[in-house]
Amino acid sequence: MMSINPKYNGSTREVVYQQVKKKIIDLELKPKTKISETEIAKELNVSRTPVREAFLMLAQEELIGIYPQKGTIISEIDLDIVEEGRFVRENIERAIVNQACSMLDGEQLFRIESNIAMQKLCLNKGSYQRLFELDEEFHFLLFQGCGKLRTWNMIRQMNSHFDRLRVLRLALNLDWEVVVSQHEALLQHIEQQEKQRAEELMVRHLNLVNYEKEDLKKRYPDYFKQ
User: Fold this and answer.
1) Is the pTM of this model over 0.90?
2) In this structure, are residues 37 and 48 in contact, taking their beta carbons and an 8 Å threshold?
3) What structural domains does the chain harbor?
4) What distance in Å separates the CA atoms of residue 130 and residue 187, rounded to the nearest whole number?
5) Nearest residue to 166 (alpha-carbon basis) of 110, 122, 117, 205
6) What's 35's DSSP letter?
7) pLDDT digits over 32-74, tens only?
């Protein structure tokens, strides 16, 4: 059962939106599942109005479909949307990692180094859920260090389908050693101000999903839009 999480700040609509979105991305609410305003309002102990508004926001991100005759249904993962989100990330994060080579100070580099140290620990312990969170934090720290948090928030809004694919990837524990080693190499290129090498590696890093999505689609066919 869901409940209002105190870590979320803002309007009731925003809280409902964030919590339902997280459950969709984490696949707790699976594709093709029906949800209703009444049920969500009851679970979160809120009125139906903020739930309806949150549903409209989720529909704009194509995470849910609102159908007059069928109700509200969790959308399947759309690989065209995944690719568009990846394309945007690739081109923006190339620019971010380029800037990071000349903009990050010692404290910011230390935060990224600490993040990677935690990634290695989680990899050794098999703590893949925490590793997933640290992966996200690694990229966030690059945007934060370059003063591009609005850009980060824009990318996050575009990458919901991409993120659901990453959650499936987490379930199969695919190539986490590669992910962590690429993060470590990216940090080295940033520290040594090797802009071109950092950009090239970031492109390869964000293309990892292309090698995995067909395998994931075969393993979880009901999760994907045909």
Assistant:
1) no
2) yes
3) 12-74 (1.10.10.10), 79-221 (1.20.120.530)
4) 20
5) 205
6) E
7) 999 999 999 999 999 999 999 999 999 999 999 999 888 999 9
Closest CA to 27 of 116, 125, 132, 121: 132
Instruction: Reduce the secondary structure of 171-207 to three states and give it as a string.
Output: HHCCCHHHHHHHHHHHHHHHHCCCHHHHHHHHHHHHC
Spell out the long-range contacts of 46-55 with Cβ–Cβ below 8 A and sequence spacing 24 or more.
46/4, 46/12, 46/16, 47/12, 50/11, 50/12, 50/13, 50/15, 50/16, 51/16, 53/13, 53/16, 53/17, 54/13, 54/14, 54/16, 54/17, 54/20, 55/20
Q: Which residue in this structure is represented by tokens 């903009």? A: 103
And the tokens for 7? 């870590």
- What type of residue sits at position 201? L
Tell me: the pLDDT tens digits for 185-226?
999 999 999 999 999 999 999 988 777 788 888 889 999 998
Cβ-contact 31, 223 below 8 angstroms: yes
Residue among 24, 22, 23, 12 nearest 51 (CA): 12
Q: Do residues 170 and 134 make contact, with C-beta atoms less than 8 angstroms apart? A: no
Pairwise CA distance, residues 205 & 187, whole Å? 13
User: Token digits for 157?
Assistant: 């809004």
